[in-house]
Amino acid sequence: MKLVAFFTLLLAAQPAAADERITDDTPYKIPSGAFRAGLWKLQYGIPGVPKLELGTYTLPYVSFAFKVKSFNAHAKYQFFDKEHWTLAANLAVAYVDLAGLDVDAQIGIVPIQLLAARRIGKRLTLGLGVMYSSISGEGSYNADEATEFRGAVAVDNVQTWVSLMLQLSRGWTLYLESRAVSSTQAAGRADATFSIDDRTTVDVTATGNASIDELRGGSSLLAAQYSRQRFRFRFGIGYGNYNIPVINFIVPATTPFPELDISWVF
Amino acid sequence: MRWSLLLVVAACTAEEAGTKPEPPDMRALIASYAAPTATFDSQGAIEVQQLIENKVGALLDFDAIVDRIQTTILALEEDGQSFAPRRAIVLEGEGVARIQRICTGFGDPAPPIDKDANGFLDLTVGYSNDGLDSVVFGGAIDCKEEISGKQMQVAGDVHLFVGEGTDIGDLTSTTFLFELANFEFDVNGTNLISGGFDFEVCRGETTACVPGHVGVLLALGDGTTLVFFIDLTTKTGGFRAADGVWTCDFTNDVCTNESGAVATIPEYQL
Description:
The structure holds two protein chains of two kinds.
Chain A: H1 2-13, E1 35-38, E2 41-45, E3 52-57, E4 69-82, E5 85-97, E6 104-120, E7 124-144, E8 147-169, E9 172-195, E10 200-211, E11 217-227, E12 231-240, E13 243-244, E14 249-250, E15 255-265
Antiparallel strand pairs in A: 1-2, 1-15, 2-3, 3-4, 4-5, 5-6, 6-7, 7-8, 8-9, 9-10, 9-11, 11-12, 12-15, 13-14
Chain B: H1 2-16, H2 27-34, H3 42-47, H4 49-73, E1 94-102, H5 115-118, E2 120-128, E3 131-132, E4 135-147, E5 150-161, E6 176-187, E7 190-201, E8 214-219, E9 225-231, E10 236-241, E11 244-249, E12 254-257, E13 262-264
Antiparallel strand pairs in B: 1-2, 2-3, 2-4, 4-5, 5-6, 6-7, 7-8, 8-9, 9-10, 10-11, 11-12, 12-13
């Protein structure tokens, strides 16, 4: 009840927004010089480079509480914005180091996005996106004095999505998205050394490529965004294989999933 | 810097995935053992006498080294019955296993383990989801073994055909075809093998050779071939030839084929 009252107060307190367009997974960006702070992201529109936006996901930094170092950043550059079309590219990097847990493992993730929006009339926008994500990791593990594992793996996938953004009224935008992971490929190399006895050692090097069918799938999302001048509130529900933000790989199981974000743009 | 390293690792991973060292090509030798080209007769038996006696003489001692090589390969197999449980080596997907076994050295009791002083066996086994790759390869590096009081010294390349798609658990019941190259085998200081040498250890039912025997390929003067096979313990055996299998009575110096034809042979010193 208190939460409802809080949001009501927030909504009532803000005047109408100048730009209500949804910026997540679209080529739109926050204005130059603006700062977005929300549940999941911090973003900044670089003043000197008006088409550039930098940001980071905030939740992964909770890992520091568990002695896991992680960093992530993304940059969106809007390279075309005229009449009916807006195009942008987004490059992100993320890094996780498990050394704090006494596990010698490092993981790197690099997603690259191409984003497009085609405005169809005043209220309707068609969005298109394609993303290539590469996740790579390496690590080693000493099971005991006689056994040592070392490994590296690289997995990449391609996602595509289509969205419709419909401005219902001033402040309210309906967002419909359909997303598909069209391919997931894995390439790995793992080494292990086994001391069989005092005289005998075995070094095993495993290599391979695989297409991972379990990591193909799709999802649909229906969400609404309420915008006031500084305030953004997005909520909705989706169904399918949930795409995990930052790492950009899907959950193999098909389930309903919620969509929720609250942010302020200063 | 760390990022650069990680990306390079990922790139290398993608490039290296699926690549394995190329084993030596044993197809010609495998075909020769599978289909000898000479028709067996008494004249041929006389012609190959010296070859048989030399090769069988070497194999009598080399059999112990075959056991060592097989034991080395079987390090890949999980041994749930050993007193000290070993960690299972799971060969799944595609890859390569390299096994090194330090030789015992000369002396009774055996001297301390010393790779540099006593040498080692070094074997590479490729594998995939279909089983082991058909050719195991590697060699003996100045390996010294003392077996049953004999001081044996081996050095050179070992190529070993273990059959197509053989599972690691089936190795002890699979025919081995050995090809030794650039090889030296000395027993108590006497050289028994120098250069190339090949033989098969017959087990199972999947090849033409008779289980329980070892076989050697013999080249006749006209370029045709015979395979002489023998049980090294009972000294029984015979010939595989283009005209079938001839089973020999080495006591009475005669061989008989599957049709009942008889050929006399010289008295082999086996």
